[in-house]
Write a sequence for this structure.
C-alpha cells in the first residue's frame, strides 16, 4: 500500500516505540504492522491513529480504510485542541490519543487541515507530514510561502484565513500560485494527467513530479512578485517573469551602502554549473563585501524548473555570507546578449563597474579585487580580463589546459610577468567593464542575437574613443567551457559566421590588430614564461659538424662532464644527425636527444646553452624562442676584430646576444676582457670565466704517457708548425722566418702542396693522427697572433714537446696556469723565431709535472659551468630582457 510510504501514515521510530520491537529497516516494520500490528490495534504513526479506527469498526483492515470503504468520524479531541495539538512529532506519550483523519487529496492530506480553515497550522510541520522521505518539501524548496500568499491574495489575508489551507482547499482550483516559484495554471496545463486526476498540483510535484523530472514555471504575476520581494528584508532579491530594463523596479529596494561592482552571471539550463560558480563566489565573500559588490543572477531558462531550484538553493548561503544578490528570471529565453544587458543596466543604475561572468567559471580568491585594481589604475582602461586556462587571448600558457593544470602553471610563474599587458580585445568569459563605458556607450548590441562577438563589438566601439583592453596577469579565473573568441575559432556555425561578418564590416581594424598581437614579441615572451618547462637545461649543438676543430673538440670533451654534473635535472640535447656518434659521445640514461627540427621548435626549457658564439641569427633565434634564459660560451672575438673575416651583420648580432643573454661563459679571463671591451652586456647577466681543461693528461691520446723520443745530435730538428689558412694564425710570417734554415718543417692545418715544405691539411684528421705527428716532431711552433684559448698548446705539453709561441697575454696566462714550465719559448719578433726554435730543439728538460694538474681538468670546468646554469635556472626570468631578445630575432 503506497499510503504507508508516507510519513503521515507510517513513522518507523514511532512504530518501534508503539510495538516495543526493533526493526532493521522501514520495510520490516511496515510488514509487521500489516501482518500483525493492525490486528492488535497498534498505531503506525502519531498522525494515523489506527486504534481509533478499530474502536469504531471492529475487524477493520488498513486496506479497507485506504480504499475508502469505511466512514470514520473525526476524533473528539480535534475540536477541543486544534490542529497544532495533533502535529507534534516524536512527542509520543501525548500524541498517542491524537488522530488526524485521511483526506480526499491523494490520501495524503489530514482531514483536519481541510475541515478547520480557521485554525493555524505550521507549514513546516504540515509538509513534513504529507511528503515522503524521498520527495521535496515544498516549503524548504521555496514552493510555498505564506507571506507571498497573503500579499498576493488580499481576500485570504483580510479574512484571516490560513493561507496554506486556503491553497490546498480552494486556491489551486482558482489557479492561485503558492509562491512566485510555482505557477499552478502552467503545471496543470502542461500535465494533463495531473489536471484530469483532480490532484493538487503542488502536492503532486512534491511527491511525484520532482522525482519524475517534471518542470514548473514561475508565476506570471510579475507585479505581485515585485511587491512581494520589495517587502522582504532579508535574502536575495528576486524578480520573476522579468521582461527587461524598461520595466525594472530597481527603486523598490536598496542595497544599503554604495556598490562599486555588479557581477552579472547569466544562466541557461546547465544547473550543474550553479554550485561551481556560486561556490567560488562564496569562497570570496569577504573580498566581495570589501569591494562593495552585488551579484546579479539571470535565469534565461524560465521553463526549466531544475535550474531555478538550483539557483534558489544557494540563496541561504549567499545570504549567510552577506553577499548582496539580485535574482532575475526572464519571462522567456532571450539569449546571452539580453541577459547580460539586464545586468549591465543594473550596473548603470547603481553607477558601478560591471563584471560579466560566465556560469562555467571558477573565481579564485583575489582575482576580482586584482581586476578592479588594474581597471582603476588608468582611466583609459575600459575592459579587463583575468588569465585563465581556456579563453584564447586570455589563456595562460601555450595551449588550453584543465582548470587545475592552468592554475598550477599560473601559480608557478605569474609573478614573473608584468602586472598587466595591453591587448586588442579581451574575452567575455570574465569581462570587467568600466562604469564610464556603460555610461558612454550603453549596452551590448542586440544585432548579435543570442550571442557571439557581442563583447568584441562593445570593446571596439569604445576603443575608437580611446579606451583599451587589458589582461590582468596576476588574476586567475578558471573557465570550464570552450573558448568564446570568434575570429580564430576553427568551428563556427552559420549564426557565428554572420556575427563575425558584422563585426569585421564595422571594424576592419579588428583582425589585423589580432594578428599583430599574436605575432608580437611581447605575446611570445608571455607565452614562453607561462608555459611549463619540458626540460630544465637544453644544450644546442646543432652547429657541431663532423670536422676536427676547436669548437667541436670543446663539445666532445666538456659535454659528458656537464651531463654528469647536471644528472639531477631534466636535460635535452639538440643535435644534427649522428654527430655525437661521430665523436664517440654516449649519452647517459634520462638525457633526451632531439634531432628533429619540428620537435626542437616545440619544446620548452628553462635555460638553453650554446657552446660557442653564434655566427648566424637563426642559431640564437631558434633557441631564444623555446628557452626563458640563454647561456652562451664565448670563445674569441677574432671574427669581429679582423675585418677580412667579419661577415655582414655579425657585430650587431653579437651585440644583441650580449644585451639579451643571461649567462656568458668565457674560456679565459683574457677572452672575457676582449668581449666586455667590445660589447654591452645586460645588467644582471652572469659573466663566468672558466678555463678549458688545464690537465695535459686529458689531451694525451695514449695513456700512460709515452717516453719522449730522443734524436741523434747530428740529425736535423723536426719542427711542426700549427695553424691554418687564416692570416691571424701567423703561418706565412713563420714560414718566411724559418724557410732559410736547415730545419725539417711540417705545417699542420693547411695544404701547401706547391711548396717544398711538407704540409698536412686539418679538419678531417683524427686526434690520433695529430698525436702521432706531435710525437714525431722535436719542436712545436704555435705562431698565432690571436687565440681564445689554444688547445694545441695543451696537446704539445701532453707530448712533452718544447713549445715556441708568440709572446701574447693569453699565452703568458696559460704559461702561468701551467706552473711556468721551462719548455715554453716565447718570441715577440718573427725575426727571432729561428733562434727560439733552435733553443727549443736543444732543450732536454725539466718537463712540466703534468700529473700535478689532474684536478684542473674538464671536470673542474664542467662543475663551474653547471653551477652557473643552476643559478640561471633558479633565478627569476627577466621579462623585459626576454621581450627584447624575442624582438631582436622574431
Amino acid at each position: 500500500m503506497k499510503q504507508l510510504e508516507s510519513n503521515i501514515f507510517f513513522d518507523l521510530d514511532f512504530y518501534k516505540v508503539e510495538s516495543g520491537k526493533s526493526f532493521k529497516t522501514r520495510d520490516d516494520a511496515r510488514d509487521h504492522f500489516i501482518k500483525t500490528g493492525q490486528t492488535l490495534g497498534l498505531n503506525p504513526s502519531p498522525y494515523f491513529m489506527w486504534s481509533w479506527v478499530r474502536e469504531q469498526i471492529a475487524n477493520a483492515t488498513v486496506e479497507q480504510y485506504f480504499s475508502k470503504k469505511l466512514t470514520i468520524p473525526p476524533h473528539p479531541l480535534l475540536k477541543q485542541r486544534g490542529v497544532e495539538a495533533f502535529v507534534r512529532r516524536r512527542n509520543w506519550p501525548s500524541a498517542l490519543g491524537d488522530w488526524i483523519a485521511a483526506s480526499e487529496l491523494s490520501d495524503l492530506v489530514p482531514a483536519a487541515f481541510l475541515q478547520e480553515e480557521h485554525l493555524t497550522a505550521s507549514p513546516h510541520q504540515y509538509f513534513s507530514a504529507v511528503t515522503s522521505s524521498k520527495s521535496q518539501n515544498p516549503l524548504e524548496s521555496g514552493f510555498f510561502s505564506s507571506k507571498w500568499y497573503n500579499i498576493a491574495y488580499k481576500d485570504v489575508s483580510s479574512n484571516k484565513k490560513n493561507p496554506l489551507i486556503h491553497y490546498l482547499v480552494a486556491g489551486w482550483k482558482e489557479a492561485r500560485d503558492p509562491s512566485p516559484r510555482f505557477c499552478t495554471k502552467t503545471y496543470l496545463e502542461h500535465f494533463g494527467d495531473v489536471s484530469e486526476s483532480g490532484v493538487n498540483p503542488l502536492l503532486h510535484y512534491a511527491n511525484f513530479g520532482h522525482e519524475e523530472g517534471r518542470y514548473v514555471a514561475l508565476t506570471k504575476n510579475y507585479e505581485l512578485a515585485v511587491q512581494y520581494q520589495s517587502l522582504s528584508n532579508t535574502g536575495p532579491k528576486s524578480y520573476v517573469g522579468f521582461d527587461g530594463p524598461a520595466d525594472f523596479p530597481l527603486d523598490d529596494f536598496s542595497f544599503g551602502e554604495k556598490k562599486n561592482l555588479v557581477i552579472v552571471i547569466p544562466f541557461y539550463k546547465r544547473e550543474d554549473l550553479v554550485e561551481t560558480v556560486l561556490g567560488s563566489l562564496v569562497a570570496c565573500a569577504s573580498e566581495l563585501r570589501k569591494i562593495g559588490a552585488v551579484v546579479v543572477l539571470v535565469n534565461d531558462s524560465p521553463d526549466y524548473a531544475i535550474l531555478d531550484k538550483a539557483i534558489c538553493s544557494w540563496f541561504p548561503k549567499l545570504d549567510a555570507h552577506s553577499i548582496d544578490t539580485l535574482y532575475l528570471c526572464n519571462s522567456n529565453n532571450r539569449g546571452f546578449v539580453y541577459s547580460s544587458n539586464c545586468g549591465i543596466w543594473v550596473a548603470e543604475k547603481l553607477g558601478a563597474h560591471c563584471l560579466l561572468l560566465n556560469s562555467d567559471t571558477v573565481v579564485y580568491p583575489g582575482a576580482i579585487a586584482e581586476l578592479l585594481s588594474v581597471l582603476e589604475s588608468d582611466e583609459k582602461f575600459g575592459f579587463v580580463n583575468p588569465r585563465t586556462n581556456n579563453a584564447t587571448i586570455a589563456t595562460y600558457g601555450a595551449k588550453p589546459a584543465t582548470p587545475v593544470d592552468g592554475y598550477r602553471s599560473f601559480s608557478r610563474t605569474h609573478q614573473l610577468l608584468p602586472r598587466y599587458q595591453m591587448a586588442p580585445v579581451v574575452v567575455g568569459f570574465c569581462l570587467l567593464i568600466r562604469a564610464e563605458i556603460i555610461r558612454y556607450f550603453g549596452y551590448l548590441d542586440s544585432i548579435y542575437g543570442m550571442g557571439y562577438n557581442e563583447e568584441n563589438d562593445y570593446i571596439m566601439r569604445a576603443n575608437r574613443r580611446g579606451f583599451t583592453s587589458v589582461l590582468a596577469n596576476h588574476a586567475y579565473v578558471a573557465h570550464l567551457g570552450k573558448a568564446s573568441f570568434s575570429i580564430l575559432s576553427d568551428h563556427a556555425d552559420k549564426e557565428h559566421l554572420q556575427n563575425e561578418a558584422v563585426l569585421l564590416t564595422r571594424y576592419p581594424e579588428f583582425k589585423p590588430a589580432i594578428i599583430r598581437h599574436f605575432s608580437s614579441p611581447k605575446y611570445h615572451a608571455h607565452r614562453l614564461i607561462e608555459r611549463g618547462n619540458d626540460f630544465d637545461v637544453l644544450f644546442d649543438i646543432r652547429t657541431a659538424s663532423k670536422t676536427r676543430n676547436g669548437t667541436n673538440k670543446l663539445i666532445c670533451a666538456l659535454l659528458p662532464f656537464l651531463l654528469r654534473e647536471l644528472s639531477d635535472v631534466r636535460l635535452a640535447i639538440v643535435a644534427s644527425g649522428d654527430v655525437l656518434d661521430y665523436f664517440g659521445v654516449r649519452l647517459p640514461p634520462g638525457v633526451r636527444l632531439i634531432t628533429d627540427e619540428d620537435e626542437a621548435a616545440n619544446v620548452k626549457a628553462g635555460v638553453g646553452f650554446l657552446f660557442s658564439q653564434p655566427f648566424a641569427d637563426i642559431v640564437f633565434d631558434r633557441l631564444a624562442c623555446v628557452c626563458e634564459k640563454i647561456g652562451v660560451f664565448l670563445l674569441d672575438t677574432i671574427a669581429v676584430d679582423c675585418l677580412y673575416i667579419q661577415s655582414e651583420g655579425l657585430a650587431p648580432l653579437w651585440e644583441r646576444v650580449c644585451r639579451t643573454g643571461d649567462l656568458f661563459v668565457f674560456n679565459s679571463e683574457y677572452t672575457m676582457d676582449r668581449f666586455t671591451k667590445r660589447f654591452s652586456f645586460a645588467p644582471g647577466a652572469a659573466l663566468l670565466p672558466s678555463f678549458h681543461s688545464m690537465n695535459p693528461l686529458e689531451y694525451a691520446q695514449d695513456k700512460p704517457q709515452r717516453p719522449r723520443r730522443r734524436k741523434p745530435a747530428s740529425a736535423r730538428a723536426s719542427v711542426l708548425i700549427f695553424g691554418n689558412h687564416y692570416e691571424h694564425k701567423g703561418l706565412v710570417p713563420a714560414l718566411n722566418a724559418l724557410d732559410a734554415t736547415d730545419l725539417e718543417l711540417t705545417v699542420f692545418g693547411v695544404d701547401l702542396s706547391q711548396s717544398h715544405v711538407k704540409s698536412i691539411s686539418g679538419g678531417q684528421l683524427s686526434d690520433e693522427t695529430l698525436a702521432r705527428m706531435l710525437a714525431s716532431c722535436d719542436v712545436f711552433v704555435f705562431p698565432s697572433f690571436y687565440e681564445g684559448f689554444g688547445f694545441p698548446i695543451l696537446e704539445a705539453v701532453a707530448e712533452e714537446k718544447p713549445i715556441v709561441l708568440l709572446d701574447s697575454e693569453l699565452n703568458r696566462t696559460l704559461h702561468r696556469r701551467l706552473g711556468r714550465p721551462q719548455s715554453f719559448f716565447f718570441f715577440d719578433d718573427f725575426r727571432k723565431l729561428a733562434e727560439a726554435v733552435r733553443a727549443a730543439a736543444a732543450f732536454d728538460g725539466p718537463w712540466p709535472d703534468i700529473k700535478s694538474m689532474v684536478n684542473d681538468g674538464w671536470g673542474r670546468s664542467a662543475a663551474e659551468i653547471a653551477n652557473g646554469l643552476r643559478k640561471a635556472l633558479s633565478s627569476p626570468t627577466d621579462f623585459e630582457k626576454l621581450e627584447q631578445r624575442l624582438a631582436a630575432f622574431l
Residues 858-874 form the longest helix (17 residues). The chain has a mean pLDDT of 82. The chain is about 40% helix and 15% strand.
